[in-house]
């Protein structure tokens, strides 16, 4: 059986579970369940803290897992485990922040104390950038550390920025890391069932990012219309009963659907329809 680690709580848990459900796997119904088996798909799911998932996968105890890129890099197992697929969920930035007005660039952190829950990630970054600062490792709520006097600045996950604002802080310097949920696997291993899992998750990603567009267009405009909707491989073009017209079917990015529809309409396309893709294999 393929042994898969899934975040048991926190920012990634719900999104990862619904993605796996969409990919056709059984997921736990009760948050107290620690492990469940999906016998039809030959997969076992282990619900673990996202921070620990990199360790289990890195040591080869579990085959693959979903965790944050930041947590994976922080665990410093990147020789033993590798990122296989970004999942487009749980996006955040890992950034420096300080009291409003105190810092404008990371270079000013020389000789300062920086509080963080991601000390591995931060130390590597400081070393790469040649910044000589003291890292103060805290478990969470690092925004309070400056006010309480154990640090001068922090390095933390920022999503909306609301937590920083409430603490009277602001980000400074370039983002240290752009993170999102990722599938990680043991470096160089290809356990039974991994290909299917990857293909299914990629199918979910595509189904979430694309819609199916159908429209009718006059014969002489088919080429121009297809340039606007090239699809992933190539659009399907079918003759209509009225031989002057063709029906075109193509996948388009959800985010540009309306602008493409406007352009098609201006070109002369009609009966432009959008439908959702529930699942796919590309
Ligand atoms: N708003 C957010 N707050 C915290 N983490 C977020 C947010 N958005 C995305 N993430 C991502 O979620 C992961 C952290 O997950 P989680 O919050 O479960 O961990 P944790 O902070 O160690 O746990 P906990 O807060 O329960 O002690 C990281 O990969 C982080 O980038
Ligand atoms: O930019 P925002 O949308 O405000 O989100 C970022 C905040 O959320 C996380 O904290 P979490 O809730 O995980 O608590 P923790 O600090 O105790 O881990 C993170 O550590 C930041 O504090
Ligand atoms: Mg947290």
Alpha-carbon distance between the two ends: 25 Å
CATH architecture of the largest domain: 3-Layer(aba) Sandwich
Helical fraction equals: 25-40%
Mean pLDDT over the residues = 97
Query: What are the bound molecules?
Result: adenosine-5'-triphosphate, 1-O-pyrophosphono-5-O-phosphono-alpha-D-ribofuranose, magnesium ion
Strand content: 25-35%
Would you identify the CATH H-level superfamily of the largest domain? Answer: Periplasmic binding protein-like II
The chain-level structural class is alpha/beta
Short characterization:
It catalyses: 1-(5-phospho-beta-D-ribosyl)-ATP + diphosphate = 5-phospho-alpha-D-ribose 1-diphosphate + ATP. The chain is an alpha/beta fold. The chain has helices spanning 13-22, 50-58, 69-74, 119-129, 144-147, 162-166, 194-209, 222-228, 257-267; strands at 2-7, 35-38, 43-48, 64-68, 81-86, 92-99, 113-116, 134-137, 153-158, 169-179, 181-186, 210-218, 236-239, 245-253, 270-276.
What's the layout of helices and strands?
Elements: E1 2-7, H1 13-22, E2 35-38, E3 43-48, H2 50-58, E4 64-68, H3 69-74, E5 81-86, E6 92-99, E7 113-116, H4 119-129, E8 134-137, H5 144-147, E9 153-158, H6 162-166, E10 169-179, E11 181-186, H7 194-209, E12 210-218, H8 222-228, E13 236-239, E14 245-253, H9 257-267, E15 270-276
Parallel strand pairs: 1-3, 1-4, 7-8, 7-9
Antiparallel strand pairs: 2-3, 4-11, 5-11, 6-9, 6-10, 12-14, 12-15, 13-14
The structure holds adenosine-5'-triphosphate, 1-O-pyrophosphono-5-O-phosphono-alpha-D-ribofuranose and magnesium ion (MG).
Main location: cytoplasm
Pfam family, one: HisG
Domain Histidine biosynthesis HisG C-terminal: 207-278
